[in-house]
Amino acid sequence: MATQEQDFLALVKQINLLDMNLTLIDWDSHTNLPQDGASFRGELTGYISGQELALRTGTAMGQFLDYFAAHPTALDEKGQQVLRLVKKDYDLNHDIPAEDYAAYQQVVSDAQQVWEQARVAQDFSLLQPYLEKIVAFKKQFIPYWKRGQATDYDVLLDQFEPGMTVVQLDPIMATLKAGIQKIQRTLATRGTQPRTDFMSRAVPEAVQERLVRATVSRLGYDFKKGNLSRSTHPFTVALNRGDARITNRYGVHDFQMALLGGIHEAGHGLYMQNFNPDYDYTPLADAPSMGLHESQSLFNEIFIGRNAAFWQGEYGRFQQTTGDIFADIDEATFYQGFMATKPTMIRTEADPLTYPLHIVVRYELEKALFNGDTTVAELPALWRQKYQEYLGITPANDTEGILQDIHWAGGDLGYFPTYLLGQIYAAQFYHTMSQALPVTDILASGDYSQITQWRKDNIHWFGASLTPQALIKQVSGEALNPQYWLDWMTATFENAYQVPK
Amino acid sequence: MATQEQDFLALVKQINLLDMNLTLIDWDSHTNLPQDGASFRGELTGYISGQELALRTGTAMGQFLDYFAAHPTALDEKGQQVLRLVKKDYDLNHDIPAEDYAAYQQVVSDAQQVWEQARVAQDFSLLQPYLEKIVAFKKQFIPYWKRGQATDYDVLLDQFEPGMTVVQLDPIMATLKAGIQKIQRTLATRGTQPRTDFMSRAVPEAVQERLVRATVSRLGYDFKKGNLSRSTHPFTVALNRGDARITNRYGVHDFQMALLGGIHEAGHGLYMQNFNPDYDYTPLADAPSMGLHESQSLFNEIFIGRNAAFWQGEYGRFQQTTGDIFADIDEATFYQGFMATKPTMIRTEADPLTYPLHIVVRYELEKALFNGDTTVAELPALWRQKYQEYLGITPANDTEGILQDIHWAGGDLGYFPTYLLGQIYAAQFYHTMSQALPVTDILASGDYSQITQWRKDNIHWFGASLTPQALIKQVSGEALNPQYWLDWMTATFENAYQVPK
Predict the structure, then answer these.
(1) Do A24 and B20 touch (CB under 8 A)?
(2) Which of A65, A94, A123 is where one domain is finished?
(3) Is the pLDDT of residue B93 over 90?
(4) What's noted on cofactor binding (chains A, B) (predicted)?
(5) Closest-CA residue in chain A for B277?
């Protein structure tokens, strides 16, 4: 006879299968869906999502949660880890009145359409009433979601980065702001501005794709457990650890975008290909947080992809694959150009040194919306002011300013900090790994398997069985510490800008 | 308040959405699934299939069928058409004891694995016990399925080609056998054997794919409602009329395979892109039978793709797209080589003239299994004997003989005749269309839109709202008649082989 635990895991498996199904549908919608299939696709997604939500928040799940609350020893260790995640999800979704949640979803759906129109019109005021409704709904839902967090914004942070708070983030943001400015001053006063003209040389898309395939394979992404397609915006989805797919985009005059984009996505893919098989068909086969997920893509993109030692080994292969396009550019010149840093208006086009400043702006605005007294109407002015203050540039219009990201229109408030946390986690992991392995030698050798194995053994394998705090502590022996990020960026950019020691 | 009809159609829509979902999963499994995703994919397919079968054959559906049997006027015309199809499916699946059906499905699943092994071993005896079990299950199920059919084999035929019987098929097969032999004799004695050496010239795969895309677009396949991918075996799936996808394969030295294969699949796709939108989310958005589905792919492949008038218009474009590969081959020489006919051991490699003989063999064997006294053990000897008698060739081993098709191992007994019926339907449609339109002129012009429109208006639009018999009668004014096929083949091959008038 099946135990309660077996029945519970069977229900969890059904939810997991529906999630797998929704992931496939989503991937297909961004890679292969014909134009006229869109309305049918909406119906399909709605139907399967409804089935999935009904299982996650339905009576059967409620009964399991009640039972295991009363019988905590009825679950083994894995069962308890699953329960922790399932219960958090249930609590998040179960208490909100269904009609309110449906109304919220409708607003979010409308807002994303309006966001597109507002971008074309370069006019935030079109989006404003929708964003006001989204913020109002969030403020209405926060009391249902609150589980002891100190501030309202902490409740939102917790949904993407469990346990993260403004108490932790405020000093991190302050440290980074000051540290980045210091590095920028050093580069401006004592560094050599790199030559960058060759960075826009034409590289055929097929050659770029070949470069990406070969590079991400060497970096451990396994094409037996995934594939590489094209899409408008690069993304990664995992149906399961045997099927973690990446996509990429190519621009003839921007090989760096394709190369770093592909390496970035392959970092996500690598993570998802290497979960403990015991976690199959459970929510344990996932990263513990969005920040940790991002840590693995950024580990690839920044700490490997922008590492001087990596290019020592890779540049010969790069030149071979690109024929004579870069025949006149030596490795040092190439690497220096590759590492040029300069504030950009658009977050997704930012180099890693200035990237955190884009997040600081968004973090301060979100925090002010929920913990302060800013209104949605005031956001565009605040946005311009902060971009001028932190990045030294002011957007010419809302489209290259506050309308550049879809996140807020999609209801993702409290999400942006995870991008920055990803960089900080990655830097800390890189530091720890450097103490265990001769990383520079390995990178220069072109055989990265020891690095892949270290990441798998220390990070990927554990999936979501540990909290973010427990994982970073287990790997590095300490809590999250932005100093590793600052140290790496200082050394790396001073090297690339040939700052005298 | 919702009526019974609205509730019924809502249930039918749920089934349709799950079918759409299964179609997407199936397409993905053949085009993009990574190797290590296979076992997860099996679980997903099993789960969603189970959900779908439960709706099709469950209590709610049974209650609707009872209600509408007692209240026939509670449905409008469309509702009644849907009911007819849904009821047939329900009856087919509901009466079989569940454990027997599960056991049958297991045998079919095992048999397909064993079929692969038997092909490698070139040994039918490995498959024999599985095929015996499949046949035994079918014989056990036939009494449940029987709805007044005269013979057991008619029950199987009806599952793929509703209403089709051996009484109709026997004379058709006899007519074709005799007619084909007559054409072959004429070509051998009075025709000129075409030059075919250039048919294996290397054409890069990318060029072949470009040829296919351009050609099927001109033939009405709409890339806004579909896409073209690569797979081991070409196939078409329709999630819905806005998303009818085709796949193809390419061999450098076999451009004809890719070109005719793509044109064939696009015929299926064209059909499914043009159903009456009123049939969305119902089983009416389908062909009335497998034979009629195949009629539209074969209409494309044979009656257009092998038409002399079509190549009059196309050959210039073909030469342009293929660069100088065929610069020394004039249109007449090309067309003659394209039309060379010769018996082949493998059905799927057969030209249209000899193709029916492959079906005759399979039809006679299947009929003997169910309506006669042949045993599975005797099939290989019968196969060899009939291939020698009808095609003049004998397979060297089982792999190029009786093991060449997966259909029987997959439980598809009674399916093969639909391939032949597809050719006969297509010929009859072509004949009718030729009386309404100046088909030869249209084909030579390169603008095929009138043909596409005629097919849509007369065939595609109606979906499965008519029976096969009703559709062929409505279109052509008469019942299925193989003479149109024989007439077209006689004229076409005598032309290609330059038989003096």
Answers:
(1) no
(2) A94
(3) no
(4) Binds 1 zinc ion per subunit.
(5) A40
Residues on chain A touching B225 (C-beta within 8 angstroms): 34-37
Residue B314 in any domain: the answer is: yes
Instruction: Decide if A245 and B14 are in contact by the 8 Å CB cutoff.
Output: no
Report whether B494 belongs to an annotated binding site. Answer: no
Could you say which of B73, B94, B115 is where a domain stops?
B94
Helices (H), B274-326: 290-298, 308-321
- Would you say residue A1 has pLDDT above 80? no
Q: Does B358 show up as a binding residue in the annotation? A: no
- Comparing alpha-carbon positions, the chain A residue that sits nearest to B35 is A224
Give me the domain span that covers residue A40.
Answer: 4-94
Q: Is residue B175 part of a domain?
A: no
- Helices (H), ranges, A354-460: 355-371, 379-386, 417-436, 439-445, 449-458
What total number of domains does chain A contain? Answer: 2
pLDDT tens-digit readout, A50-93: 999 999 999 999 999 999 999 999 999 999 999 999 999 999 88
Residue B2 has pLDDT above 70, yes or no: no
pLDDT tens-digit series, residues A138-161: 999 999 999 999 999 999 999 999
Banded model confidence at residue B257, pLDDT cuts 50, 70, 90: very high
**Per-residue pLDDT at B119:** 95
The structure tokens listed for B354 are 């000899």
Asked if residue B64 is part of any domain, the answer here is yes
Q: What token pair was written down for A163? A: 């346990």
Let me know whether A63 and A202 are in one domain.
Answer: no
DSSP string, B133-198: HHHHHHHHHHHHH-SS-SSHHHHHHHHHSTT--HHHHHHHHHHHHHHHHHHHHHHHHHS-PPP-GG
Residue A239: strand, helix, or coil:
strand
Query: Both tokens of residue A254?
Result: 């921007």
The total of other beta-carbon atoms located within 10 Å of residue A2's CB is: 9
Q: Are residues B213 and B328 in the same domain?
A: yes
Residues of B in contact with A48 (CB under 8 A): 17, 21
Is B331 in the same domain as B480?
Answer: yes
Amino acid letter for position B110: D
Residues of B labelled catalytic: 265
Best probe of the B interface among A15, A16, A24, A33, by most B CBs < 10 A, is: A24
Please state the rounded mean pLDDT for residues A379-407.
97
Pick the catalytic residue from A5, A52, A161, A265. Answer: A265
Task: Look at residue B70 and tell me if it is in a domain.
Answer: yes
Give the closest of A37, A223, A240 to B240, CB-based.
A37
Instruction: Note whether B90 and B217 are same-domain residues.
Output: no
Cβ–Cβ gap B34/A280 under 8 Å: no
Nearest to B242 among A21, A40, A223 (CB): A40
Mean pLDDT of chain A: 96
Q: Are residues A471 and A329 part of one domain?
A: yes
CATH number of residue A284's parent domain: 1.10.1370.30
Note whether A325 and A473 are same-domain residues: yes
The mean pLDDT of B93-100, rounded to a whole number, is 88
How large is the ipTM? 0.93
* Residue B264 marked ligand-binding: yes
β pairing state of B236-240 and B243-248: antiparallel
> pLDDT confidence of B293, banded at 50, 70, 90?
very high
Predicted confidence band at A6 (pLDDT cuts at 50, 70, 90)?
very high
Q: Which residue of B has its CA nearest to A223?
A: B34
Chain A residues inside the 8 Å CB shell of B246: none
Contacts of B470 (CB under 8 A, 6+ apart): none
- C-beta atoms of B281 and A226 within 8 A: no
Res A2: pLDDT: 67
Q: What is the pLDDT of residue B94?
A: 86
Which is nearest to B318 in space by CA: B342, B345, B337, B291? B337
